Amino acid sequence: MKESSDRAITIKELRGGDRETFYRKVEAMPSTWWSSVTEHSDIKVYKRYDNEVTLVVYFDDRFCGMADLEPERRTIVDYLAVSYGNLSESLRRLLNGVVAYARIRGIEEIMIPVDSTKKVFLRTLMSEGFRIVETEYRLSKKLYKS
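The structure assignment produced for this chain is given below.
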């Protein structure tokens, strides 16, 4: 896929053992809410679903980011991580790659859960045409009466 006349975005789809090998080799910043909280332990504890894929996006052969998803009509991105370099551009290119992949696969909707404190991610997602449909909640219980 071409981003401009001379610069290309490359999307690789990884499955099974290729995914685990890739995870061990790359360092990226998790961006979705659960990714930043539980992903490192989840990878070790839970088995991956056969239908789940990891999309890895490169721009001019440089890693931009990766996303785990099950390519279904309504797809939720379970894990999304971007390169530490130029965060906003990496996220934008990763999103372009995920959307291009989704269109090819006939996916009708992509949902990406994001912690509402991550303003840069929210702004970039919204500038790429995503809209907020639900939010995460934080519950608090006071243990002592004031």
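Interim note for the steering committee: The chain is about 35% helix and 25% strand. The mean pLDDT is 77.
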